[in-house]
Amino acid sequence: MRKADVDVENHSMSKELNSYFSLLKLPERFDLDLEVLEQNYLERIRSAHPDQQQGDFQISSDLNRAYQTLLDPLLRAQHLLVLRGGEATETIQDMAVLQRSLEDREKLASAETLEALESLVQEAKRRVQETEGILAAIFGKKQKDLIELAQQKTKASDNEDTFAVGIDLGTTNSLVAFCQDSDPKILLDHEGRSFEPSVVSYSSETGSRVGHEADQDPKALHSIKRLMGMNFASLPRNYGFESHIATPLDENDHSVRLNVGVERTVTPAEVSSEILKSLKKRAEEDLGCPVKRAVITVPAYFDEAARVATREAATLAGLDVLRLINEPTAAAYAYGLNTGAEGVYAFYDLGGGTFDFTLLRLHQGIFQVLATGGDTALGGDDIDKAFLKEVMEKQKLGATSIREIRALKEDLSQAERVIFKDGFLNRHQLEVCARPFVEKTLEVCRRVFRDAKVSPKDIKGVVLVGGATRMPLIRRAVTAFFGKSPLVDCDPDQIVALGAALQAKALTQGKGS
């Protein structure tokens, strides 16, 4: 006998959406296709992510809670009982018994002939003879078979004349990494720079330019990742691409295209392919051989359409995608967490323009997204701008560029006090500017924990991603929030690309996955 340890709550959703099945567009039955459940969840969570629904966090909370409920067989059963007039607090005797009961109800409701009813009676008699141990053994074997099948399908070809790389296709910056015999390494460009700005510009004279070359062009396309997999009808307002978006000529054409010149338009996948081409070229120059295969990372909230668009971009760039993996999963690989203790891990990702927080559960070496959330209007750039205002207006240290401020922020992450122009600045001044933004990130974390019904004290480990997380203030705040120090051995700017490179090695050299 056991009671459900997690409540099935009736949220403040409207009555017609009180069913989690309706919220995730699923049939109201116990027997669910978990792949369809995950796909529908990702589609809905991306549409509710702050990238598209700024400030409306209730939607993502409802979706996270619905996903958690339907993913767990016991919670799913409880929810069905409530929908069918039962009580959520009823005692559940045994999971297998409950599952059989619900399945039999559904079959009984659909039986239309005497033969069908007789078949159900005979099936029920056979089930009486089964034991829970047999069912558990069968399930365990099927789980193992499925894992082995997935590994076989993703195993790279035996072709040894090309290398496979890991790519962090980021919103602000992108990186490429490689791993052969030792630790993974970031591949540098000809000037020794590790990252490539995720920026593309077009002109009739020079064609397309990428990265540092395009960064100074006022007409360049930035943050194209936000448009991946979207259609014209679903574009949110004030998205930052208004001057580039082309109006479809055909009312039945819902694809997003961007104006980049006289009578020329491109899709987000085509823009992303230019970034991937540049990273591919960098890798080939560094490694001295063709590069045709890659593991590419995507946000945990990317839906199927966004993932398909990412694969399309890779194909246009001449890359065969070995696997798309979630960014927090790549970070976990970089730390070797996939071989560590099972449990829930937290990933705090503060990029230049966005913040994402994800909870992953590790079970039998496989990571599963429990819940994710974020804020597209919150990033390291906001801290830079606030500190720039402090330096110029309050400290009156003269005109200062945002580039100088970023360098100054990095210096103050290493030293308590630095000389700047004709004066001094200390770390406390920086932290006063940054503290409101750090508190906003922790509020996002609290929401995600509530959605997943997990406590910070239950977390096995905390991983920091993004250059802004080097700030001592952020590391102290994260330590206090979780009650444990975060993992900081890997470079937070490079950790996602390094994890992708490790996965590329595993898929091509057959040494674990």
Automatic annotation (TrEMBL):
Any Gene Ontology biological process: protein complex oligomerization
Entry keyword annotation includes Nucleotide-binding: yes
Coiled-coil ranges per UniProt: none
Record InterPro entries: ATPase_NBD, Heat_shock_70_CS, HscB, HscB_C_sf, Hsp_70_fam, J_dom_sf
GO terms, molecular function: ATP binding; ATP-dependent protein folding chaperone; ATPase activator activity; protein-folding chaperone binding
Alphabetically ordered keywords of this record: ATP-binding, Chaperone, Nucleotide-binding
Family: Belongs to the heat shock protein 70 family.
NCBIfam families (alphabetical): hscB
Name of this chain's protein: Chaperone protein HscA-like
Species whose genome carries this gene: Stylophora pistillata
